[in-house]
């Protein structure tokens, strides 16, 4: 997993819970990296799971809810890191439908070895998008957070329903209906 995901997560934890919480979850997680990350480095996904678990334990916030908030936060990282990318779209459904064929292509230009989830569009119309998320990492709530912020960015709302295809969350269908 790319280091930017770790550095931004720890920045978010510091903003929301303080530096003491960052130190506490790093110490409790017994990380191979010792919690020292660079945005361009690559780190084991198990470290993110450990950080999330320890934060969840200390805050009584579910891992899914933490991932949701983190996904919403990460949208601003995308806006900063990929200047102009979001602005190439006029519509949230168009933007979300282009994750696989445009957005992930741009991400791979900067992080060629990034292990990104796959998004398969099953159905798309002006006010409906159905797509399947596939990843060995069950971080679909992170994706949901990104989707929520996408609609907020375009000053509109949507109802987003999740259907687990694989019980472990490695394959999930998102049904997105614009309000």
Automatic annotation (TrEMBL):
InterPro entries: H-NOX_domain_sf (IPR038158), Heme_NO-bd (IPR011644), NO_sig/Golgi_transp_ligand-bd (IPR024096). SUPFAM superfamilies: Ligand-binding domain in the NO signalling and Golgi transport. GO terms for molecular function: heme binding. Residues 2-161 form the Heme NO-binding domain. Gene3D superfamilies: H-NOX domain. This is Haem-NO-binding.
């Amino acid at each position: 997993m790319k280091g930017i995901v770790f550095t931004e997560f720890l920045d978010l934890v510091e903003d929301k819970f303080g530096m003491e919480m960052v130190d506490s979850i790093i110490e409790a997680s017994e990380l191979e990296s010792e919690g020292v990350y660079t945005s361009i480095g690559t780190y084991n996904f198990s470290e993110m799971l450990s950080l999330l678990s320890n934060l969840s334990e200390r805050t009584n916030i579910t891992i899914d809810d933490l991932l949701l908030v983190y996904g919403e936060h990460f949208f601003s990282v995308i806006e900063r890191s990929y200047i102009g990318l979001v602005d190439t779209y006029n519509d949230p459904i168009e933007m979300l439908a282009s994750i696989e064929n445009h957005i992930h292509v741009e991400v791979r230009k900067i992080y060629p070895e990034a292990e990104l989830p796959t998004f398969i569009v099953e159905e798309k119309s002006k006010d409906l998008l159905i797509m399947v998320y596939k990843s060995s990492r069950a971080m679909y709530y992170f994706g949901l957070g990104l989707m929520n912020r996408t609609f907020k960015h375009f000053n509109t709302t949507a109802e987003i329903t999740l259907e687990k295809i694989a019980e472990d969350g490695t394959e999930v269908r998102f049904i997105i209906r614009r309000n």
